[in-house]
Amino acid sequence: MNIGANDPYKHQKSFQGHLFLGSSPENYLWAVLSIFAVTVFGQVLTPHLDLTNIVLIYLLPVLISAVRWGRGPAFLASSLGALAFNFFFVPPIFTFAVADIQHFFTLVVYLLVALVTSTLATKLRDEMHKATQGEQRALALYDLSREIAARSDFDQVLKTFVDKVAQAIDGMAIVLVHDPQTNAMEQIASEGADSFFDKKEYAVARQVLEQGRPAGKGLGIFEGERSLFFFPVRAEDRTLAVLGIRPGGEASSLSPDQTQLVETLSNLAAVIIVRLELAKEAEQAKWLAESERLHRTLLNSISHDFRTPLASIMGAVTSLIDEKDIYTPETRGMFLGTIREEARRMNRFVENLLDMVRLESGTLKLNMKVCDIQDIIGVVLREMRDTLTGHPVKVDIPPDAPSVMADFILIEQVVINLLENAAKYSPPDVPVSISVGVREKDLVLTVANAGPSIPGEEREHVFDKFYRQSSTRHVSGTGLGLFICKGIIEAHGGRIWIDPSPEQGNRFSFSLAAAGEAPDRQNS
Amino acid sequence: MSAQGARILVVDDEKQIRRMLKAALEGYGYDIAEAASGHEGLSQTSIFHPDVVILDLGLPDMDGIEVIERLREWTEVPVIVLSVREHEDDKVRALDAGADDYVTKPFGMGELLARLRAALRRMARSEDEPVLALGELSLDLARRSVTVRGEEVKLTPTEYEVLKYLARKAGRVVTHRQLLLEIWGSNYQEHSQYLRVYIGQLRRKIEADPSQPAYIITEPGVGYRLVAAD
User: Fold this and answer.
1) pLDDT for residue A290 is more than 90
2) Which of A118, B69, B79, B167 could be cross-linked to B132 through a Cys-Cys bond (beta carbons 3.0 to 4.6 Å apart)?
3) Boundary-marking domain end, from B94, B124, B154
């Protein structure tokens, strides 16, 4: 991130900082006190010690001040030390005059040594401080990136991000993500930062977005009354978002360290946003490709599966209209039967298409009521009387089969699809069977035929949308029936599967939770 | 109870459907009038005095349910509703509003004719017929006895009441609500779960194969219908 040519360090120092060189008044007081203590101590020792040794004691508070309280107090201690030594110890005592040239030399050397030492010690202290800060920052960043890597949802990632920023500056943070399409800014705020800014401040955020430069006290464009800072989050030439922060506590400004931390964090934010945008684009591209594929398959399916029955109907009808005298009554009956059966098939196809659309769009509404599975099977068999001619149906329902909480019509549709497949994919006169069993607390319905088995490797795909078995492509079908069955059963919280062993024909089963003693929700 | 000459009003906005119904039903000797909208249907009912109204629920100008309600303000003419599979609730609402029966589009002519005959029978039948017979099932209302395939079956009082109510409306759909109201009265909702149980018990007693009922047919999402076993 580039925050422009302004050196934030220069502007960061508050009024307080200018006066006291970044140290608090207490620290200066401590420096004064330490010099006082050394002076008292020196007075006690003076009968036993040489002047040159006493001046060494005066180096002690200078060093301590430099390490503990910073450069300012160290300088103060050096100067005060020189003055005190001169006043209290260098003859003539209790004056600032220096009689002996030797003593004058001692004083000058002391002052030089004190200043140099304190400068070095302060530098050391600053380095140490920086190292600690750097470590903390690295830790915070590590923490953040680890947490972010664990999430993929756009809002969640940014929420984690702002929470971390708020934690790092001990205040509040907000990120305003710019949507280039709508030009709107989506706000994601840290905990408790709901009313982060007012209208005017929001306008500043927009300005930061447009100009790509930070704003806030000491940062440039905006000098508000409240301590509020905006940083642009930039990647390449584009400002992706604005990071707004409001440090907590008394501090009305950002320390250089905080500024640096926030800059690093907003760089990270840029990386995050770019990553998320790329992921979103990839997802969209995938979705588009998928929907295009679906579209194509659907069109193929419709054109084929509508036209096949339509061709039969057209053929039969035109035959009957054009040449009605050459056909025997049996042939005419056959034509009419074909028309009826093909029309029914088209109707089932339309129902399947509608069910698919409802499943896909999530508008499928379950009308859950207590249902007897025997009742559902009875309705299905009645409905399919004509389709099932030529296939003896064996029904096996134990008398104590539990009822299920289900949408009667949708489960009916599932059983119709399973039964239609069982009949369609088995040679004439091969029996199909429906059996009901109980497995733990579930009711399991199985539809089986002894027809040609679906090869093992194709079994796992039979529930896929538009999947057609390679060996039975000649049989008219949509590849939707089982997909819809799966959707409906799963919407009921049940499971649908095909028996994995192909030896004994094809066995399709689904399970639904038994209604048990649950209160009846029937309301009609 | 001959259908000959019975007058039927077809209310549907689809011209093809009207044309097809007119041709088919006239072939069976019915006298047909057509209406293409709800308002036209209402006015035709008062002019044509049909014996049965066939009403499509999806009309362009007004809700089919409203047409039924407006009809019921002044006439008891049987109404058979045409509906589509997706709208189970509409069927129930139409029936509760006073429609007599429904046929789901697309329908077979045999199915529609059966509904028409049942509706016409309602107008012809007197309420105190002593014996109700449907194929091999008969109810002797005076003796409160039920015979199936030549054998008398023992029914509990509630089972008998349920069967009697279905038999009185033989061939016509009976909604869950209607049955519950008739048998258990106004606080019927407490008993709703029993209805399934009683229907199950009745089927075990009168059906040759209870898993493929031939008399008591379930109308998914709507109710039950007692038909003559074929």
Assistant:
1) no
2) B167
3) B124
Q: What percent of chain A lies above the pLDDT cut of 70?
A: 85
- Matching residue, tokens 């940014």: A158
Rounded-to-integer distance, Cα A503 and Cα B20, Å: 50
pLDDT digits 0-9 by tens, B21-43: 999 999 899 999 999 999 999 99
Domain that holds residue A338: 285-358
* Domain CATH number, residue B23: 3.40.50.2300
DSSP state letters, A240-251: EEEEEEE--SS-
Q: How does residue A13 score in pLDDT terms, banded at 50, 70 and 90? A: very low
CA distance B44 to chain A (A): 32
Task: Report chain B's mean pLDDT, rounded to a whole number.
Answer: 87
What integer pLDDT is reported at residue B230 of this predicted model?
Answer: 55
Strand-strand pairing, A506-513 and A238-246: unpaired
- Domain residues for the domain of B12 are 7-124
Whether residues A24 and A137 share a domain: the answer is: yes
- Residues 362-381 of chain A whose Cβ lies under 8 A from any Cβ of chain B: 367, 370, 372, 374-375, 377-379, 381
Interchain CB distance below 8 Å, A524 and B86: no
* Residue A220 vs residues A12, A211, A241, A426: alpha-carbon distances, Å: 11, 11, 18, 80
Hey, of A366, A384, A403, A524, which one would you mutate to test binding to chain B, going by the most B CBs within 10 A of its CB?
A524
How many Å separate Cα A54 from the centre of its chain?
Answer: 67
Query: What pLDDT was estimated at residue A501?
Result: 66
Domains identified in chain A, total number: 4
